[in-house]
Write the structure tokens for this entry.
Amino acid sequence: MKLTTKLTTKIIRSYKVELAPNNKQRGIFMKSAGTARWAWNQGLGRKKEAYEVENKTLSFVDLSRAIVLLKDDPKYAWLYAVSSCVVTCALRNLDKAYSAFFRRIKQGTTPGFPKFKARHKGIGSFQTQRCRNNGSHVHIPLIGFEIGRAHV
């Protein structure tokens, strides 16, 4: 009996695009960057508190559930102004940074604990998912179509 194995290759393609947003879109970009910073800081604060008080580490899922519960509060209605992917990506990045910190401690290398993001340091940045490239246009969730110059 002859056994054969089938190898599959997954190709991940990325594009670097320079965007030219109008004023409304620029405002949404700024709100998204601020929301990502807020989500990072909220998540980091909760992770630090849980570790200091209960000596346990909160996972990405725990943080996401806490943010979803906060969205029900009218005080946090502004979270609906940006894509939920912005918050999700910020919390995922925080989870990776927190895991990398503990991994570096175990390895004995210089650990760098994740830091809170300051509001006054630069414009900020954010990541999102579900973007579509449509030739010369890029569709970003809740922002719409952008005309950009591709750098491939």
